[in-house]
Write a structure and sequence with these properties.
The chain has about 300 residues and is α/β, with parallel strands linked by helices. The chain has helices at about 40-50, 60-75, 110-120, 145-150, 165-170, 185-190, 195-210, 250-260, 265-280, 290-300; strands at about 1-5, 10-15, 30-35, 55-60, 75-80, 80-85, 90-95, 100, 130-135, 160, 180, 215-220, 225, 235.
Length: about 300
């Protein structure tokens, strides 16, 4: 079973308008609503690929109920911690000649709520996968990723961590099954600017030496690189298409990779992850199954 954790789920309210008049009245051309957060995105795309998962995290208020209902409609089982005050955040994304975002803060997460999340983590069994993805809200301890992996240490849980900088570096001692920084984030971790695939491979191997089992580096229009658990280097090109959307593409790549690993073939997992990320990037929402496998054919 795959479990995903989204600490601060959101309703993404996407507004399309021709021009944005700051300080004046603006009217939309069209609107869409998505239920998101990085872990939730992974769960929704896994469902599209036929992989069952359970979404964990914190929700509050009427927006939290809408998020839970919306995620369930996508075929994802949920077991969120219900907070007793506040409401889950709404992120407003305005798409005009320039894109503008206003992201909500989210509810206060109490110590009691954190303890309840840990109880839910006790359900994980040997061989299960746990996905920790995204930033940490300011009402949670900054080392919550570390605390969770420490809590689960000694059990045969495959941890997938999609985070940046110290959040990622500090969990490597727990030997996560997969980490997925992009090439810019990889350079930031080591204070360098990476310009070639050879340099990216060299620093990705450093992360593996520090504890990561598999290191997946996304490189946007340049494809992706994987250093697998045996130290083998796999390089995958990019799918062809018109980029419409960057939100959730990285989460989709993680979902595709996890799904591909079910076959025990890292080369296939890398290709499926690349195709799944591309299917999201080339659409207005998250990847759809037919689009994923159509793009996968480009990589075979």
């Amino acid at each position: 079973m795959v479990y995903t954790v989204t600490f601060n789920p959101a309703i993404d309210y996407v507004v399309h308008t021709d021009d944005m008049n700051v300080g004046g009245v603006n009217r939309s051309r069209s609107e869409e609503i998505y239920f998101g957060g990085k872990g939730i995105n992974v769960s929704i795309v896994l469902s599209e690929l036929g992989i069952k998962s359970k979404a964990l995290g914190f929700v509050a208020g009427f927006t939290g109920k809408a998020i839970e209902d919306g995620v369930k409609e996508k075929g994802v089982e949920t077991d969120f911690v219900q907070l007793h005050s506040g409401f889950s955040r709404i992120n407003v994304k305005i798409k005009a000649s320039q894109e503008t975002e206003l992201n909500g803060q989210g509810p206060v997460i109490t110590e009691e709520a954190i303890a309840e999340l840990y109880k839910k983590l006790d359900e994980l069994k040997d061989g299960d996968t746990l996905v920790l993805a995204g930033s940490i809200p300011n009402t949670l301890p900054s080392d919550i990723y570390e605390k969770i992996l420490e809590y689960l240490s000694g059990r045969n849980i495959r941890a997938v961590v999609d985070a940046t900088k110290d959040l990622l570096l500090n969990v490597l001692k727990y030997k996560p099954f997969l980490i997925k920084p992009n090439n810019h984030e990889l350079g930031e971790m080591f204070g360098v600017t990476l310009t070639t695939v050879e340099e990216i491979v060299m620093y990705a191997k450093k992360l593996k030496e520090m504890g990561a089992v598999n290191v997946l580096i996304s490189m946007a229009g340049d494809g992706a690189v994987l250093i697998d658990e045996d130290g083998e280097v796999h390089v995958c090109g990019v799918c062809k298409g018109t980029v419409k959307n960057s939100v959730g593409a990285g989460d989709s790549m993680v979902a595709g990779f996890i799904a591909g690993c079910q076959q025990g073939d890292y080369e296939y997992a890398l290709k499926l992850g690349t195709a799944t990320g591309g299917a999201t990037a080339f659409s207005d929402g998250l990847a759809q199954k037919d689009d994923i496998f159509r793009l996968l054919e480009q990589l075979n």
